[in-house]
Amino acid sequence: MSESMTITLNVWRQKDKTSEGRFVRYTLSGVSPDMSFLEMLDLLNLDLIRRGEEPVAFDHDCREGICGTCSLYINGRAHGPLKGVTACQLHMRTFHDGDAITVEPWRARAFPVIRDLVVDRSAFDRIMAAGGFVSVRTGGAPDANTIPIPKPVAEEAMDAAACIGCGACVAACKNGSAMLFVAAKVSQLALLPQGHAERRQRVEAMVAQMDAEGFGSCSNTYACEAECPKQISVSHIARLNTEYLRAKLL
Amino acid sequence: MNKISSFTTSSVGRKLSMGLTGFFLCSFLVVHLYLNLFLLKQDRGSTFDTYADFMATYPLIRPLEIILFAGFLLHAFIGGWLWITNRIARPVRYAANRPSENSTLASRTAFWTGAFVFIFLVVHVNTFFVRSRFFADGMTMHERVYEAFQSPLYVTFYLVALAFLAYHLKHGVQSAFQTLGLRRRRYETLINAAAVLFWLVIPAVFAVLPLYFLLAH
Amino acid sequence: MTLDSRIPAGPIEAKWDNHRFAMKLVNPANKRKYHVIVVGTGLAGASAAASLAELGYRVTALSYHESPRRAHSISAQGGINAPKNYPNDGDSVYRLFYDTVKGGDYRAREANVYRLAQVSNAIIDQCVAQGVPFAREYGGLLDNRSFGGAQVSRTFYARGQTGQQLLLGAYSALMRQVGLGAVKFIERREMLDLVVADGKARGIVARNMVDGRLESYSADAVILATGGYSNVFFLSTNAKMCNATATWRAHKRGAFFGNPCFTQIHPTCIPVASDHQSKLTLMSESLRNDGRIWVPKEKGDKRAPNQIPEAERDYYLERMYPSFGNLVPRDVASRRAKEMCDKGHGVGTTGLAVYLDFSDTIKRNGRAWVAEKYGNLFDMYKQITGEDGYDSPMRIYPAVHYTMGGLWVDYNLMGTIPGLFVLGEANFSDHGANRLGASALMQGLADGYFIIPYTIGDYLASNKFSAIDSTAPAFKEAESSVAGITKKLTGVNGKTPVDVLHKELGKIMWDYCGMGRNAAGLKKALTLIPALRERFWEEVAIPGSADAFNQELEKAHRLADFLELAELMVQDALLRDESCGGHFREEHQTEDGEAKRNDAKFSFVAAWEYAGAKKSPKLHKEPLKFEYVKPSQRSYK
Fold it and tell me: Is position C330 annotated as part of the catalytic site?
């Protein structure tokens, strides 16, 4: 199980937001199949640091697939080749000795590169600030069991709420669209009675902010669902569309 | 008013417009095909020509015609607009990209198949509509059809165009259901059936006509 | 300086109500005149920032993440406690209070714990109103599950992602205030110093992690909600960026550090697989509700688990603790697992693991039932180990998970520096020597939503604030101090990467100040840590520039502080010559191997005062009085 592999990496290096970037090739040996993809990058960085070179910058934090920080386009796929998995949970046993792996940052106008593989996803925060909430003040809530919510509805809302905001949907979409991200929140709060009071303003404001950030628009290729590490369904996009239509026409 | 203008400029609003015009154009396809089928009636085109005359002369058809043209143009215009803004949304492309792993070719090429269908429509409208309406050359519509489809080249062009239309609709029909929020798990079988009807059956039956005129006459 | 915990008078049930009435209020129109800095935007920080902004205060919230939604609170899986008594199984505020004090092995402050239990019900109401999709029963009402250390079902959960859902709730409340302009959220900033002027906390110095610039922020009060310090062990279940720098640098500015040696080892983590491992992954202890823990009776039994017949398995927790069984508190479950492995019953290639078996539950309720409740945990296990937990038992081993210790705070959650408030895991307050499961989320949100909004008002209304801005001398002094550390770090020009040194520190801490501790080992650690610290300052390699995005420099700042904090942890562990909760001094155990407290000598909070570099820290004791829950030997038999 622990035979060591040699991997060729083709990594995007870019000094800062305004500099030109380029691909740099590294050969890395001593890669264990039990390593996560990020641990493999750690190993590369240890090598680089020992040689006095600057390590590859990449965003990561929890390394257990929930914080949504890691954001690598690996061999032409958001988060790499496996379905329903973030880059931090991708293990090197998925690859073979001698493989060449291209690693790129998320590419979208709304996600500018900050350095190497790190991108700025604050556009997502601004979309959330525009309407991704229920306006409830601390302390003003009624007893939690006041509103019964049918289990299937709560479950579907939870499916949408599972979004980790990693941006793989944007990265994978040929249009750089953030529809799955926006739809997940709109749908969650449209399904739950708590969200009903503001459903119209919410969908209008979030879509307007999404457009203002420079994301593309959805053309129903469903690449987002296929690459979403939490496998969030495009049926939530369908719900967003009806929410939007209702808000505009009724 | 503000609501309407923000609707047409927003990404979701434009998508909804694509879906709505798409459905509208699909409904036109059904009417068109229904009338075309009279070409197969063995009456030297008299029933077909009656309908063609009716379409050309009945006053209520005019506004419908304009709406139809507007629908086409709107669908094409918004489609092009979306394509351009979507290109802008990713200024730097990936060096390595494997979209075939996450989406269908039909969905990714809808703009291009649509663009080809648009070119076809220009030719098609010129052959049958413009000439009969604006150039009084005394030919009946049936004669016009008969004449046009004697050319193997023209028939080939038609068949290719219908193949593109089919591929366009393969993505377009289910996509319109999705866009209008009708694609729910509960209706999946129904939507899939409708999609097959539109992308496979209707273009196939359309394709019978040029072949019929080329081969049977 | 004497410690004043400011516990209000009166019976425990009335303390918080009395206190809320006694506290001064800030007139609504005056609130916008006050500016509050919140450092850290996890559960505690985000909920505090949102709630304070709702009240009308001007709030600046900073995070070293790009977004508040990345905070490590998001990784909490199992749930959040509240004594709603929906299941009608005899729960009450008093019972939650009792369980928490007992679970903490009588080293927590009763008044704080009671208040925590009191406000916990409102947290559930608040979260549901925000749209948090808690699990529900078919009738549409909220579902509960049970958790370690309790015999009632009081844990609310959202699949295995409760922390995520609660954080996203608090995040949504925060982003709403950001959208309204009431909170200014500043991302990718790491606090590197606390600014104290005229004896009050008046601001911070932070590094802009994108361009490397130092920035000063002034305010009338500073709230630290920067989490715990488990990463001192390098391998822990904490996220990679979790660190102690904010709290440690506040400590060096005069904030006392409470009970630093109290760390929690979580029993159900995925075992270490290789040297390259960068972190450990926890699986919710809710798994212990339906999974059974066992080891082979035979030492060194290398058969596949499914080959070992029932009669040759030792379900040791069920055997030793018939009434709590697999649901004993975390410290007990962890220690017993270690003991089994130390005796040679461990499983897997390393022998450092025990089995967590779901086969009985799958037989009883079906695989689908298990998948609905725990599916994401099984998926995670499979992803990491390449093995299927449905087909054969999972392997688990304890890992460092949470630090009960933290900056010392009084009843108002204020540290020993006036105007410095500390919330959530960053403070020491509510969990004593051991935290019960599903209590961290509860404490973080209690502090942020329901405590700080009151207590900070009292502080602001009771004090006069001189006008100060970031050009004041105190800020300049802090900036140059931080710049000096950075310069010293980048000036080392060594060859050893930060992570290599960090791993060495982690090993020292795990070996001598981990699950089991003894005087000889601790004394040894006290020689090893300073030696390693010296090496750090001679060998550390930090390529790149300080004036740019530089993750190695970030890590070096953090490790520099961990190397100092580690020593304090060991000193505290050595001082506490008793066993209690997660602090297990091998010299002090009962015949059954349980932690043996020494209430006569150690019923106090150890609050350490920083005395300066190379000087021994000064110990202050806050005596603990137990008027309601009488200390007894914890028994989970």
Answer: yes
Query: Does A185 have pLDDT greater than 50?
Result: yes
Listed in sequence order, the residues at least 6 apart from C129 whose beta carbon sits closer than 8 Å to its beta carbon are: A134, A136, A140, A141, A142, A194
DSSP string, A67-126: S----EEETTEET-SSTT--GGG-BGGGS-TT-EEEEEE---TTS-EEETTEE--HHHHH
Residues A189 and A90 in one domain: no
All partners of chain B with 3 or more CB pairs under 8 angstroms = A
- Cβ–Cβ below 8 Å for C74 and A64: no
Residue in B85, B94, B110 closest to A76 by CB: B94
- Residues of A whose CB is below 8 A from C274: 2, 32, 34-35
A210 with A151, same domain: the answer is yes
Nearest CA in chain B to A234: B178
- How many angstroms away from the CA of A146 is the closest CA of chain C? 8
B131: in domain: yes
Stated pTM of the model: 0.96
With CB atoms and an 8 Å threshold, state whether B91 touches A109: yes
Q: Provide the domain limits for residue A27.
A: 5-115
Q: Collect all residues of chain A within an 8 Å Cβ-Cβ radius of residue C84.
A: 144-145
Measured in angstroms, the CA of A223 and the nearest CA of chain C are apart by 22
Token couple for B81: 């607009």
Among C394, C570, C366, C450, which residue's Cα sits nearest to residue C117? C450
Location of structure tokens 């599972």: A162
Q: Where are the domains of chain C?
A: 34-263+402-462, 265-400, 473-613
Average pLDDT, chain B: 93
Q: Which CATH architecture has domain C473-613?
A: Up-down Bundle (1.20)
Q: Tens digits of per-residue pLDDT, C165-182?
A: 999 999 999 999 999 999
Residue-wise pLDDT for B145-176, tens only, equals 999 999 999 999 999 999 999 999 999 999 99
Number of domains in chain A: 2
Whether the Cβ atoms of residue C428 and residue C404 lie closer than 8 Å to each other = yes
From the list C214, C240, C277, the residue with the least C-alpha distance to C70 is C240
Between CA C314 and CA C312 the distance in angstroms is 7
Q: Of these residues, C330, C336, C395, C634, which one is catalytic?
A: C330
Nearest residue, CB atoms, A62 vs list C74, C86, C141? C74
Surface of A (105-134) touching B: CB under 8 A: 107-110
Best residue in A73, A109, A220 for a mutation probing chain B (most B CBs within 10 Å)? A220
Q: How far is CA C495 from CA C181, C477, C541, in A?
A: 46, 31, 5
CATH of the domain at B41: 1.20.1300.10
User: What's the CA gap between B11 and C531, in Å, rounded?
Assistant: 61
Of A97, A115, A133, which one is at a domain's C-terminal end? A115
Does A232 share its domain with A129? yes
Q: Is domain C265-400 in CATH 3.90.700.10, yes or no?
A: yes
On whether residue B97 sits in a domain, the answer given is no
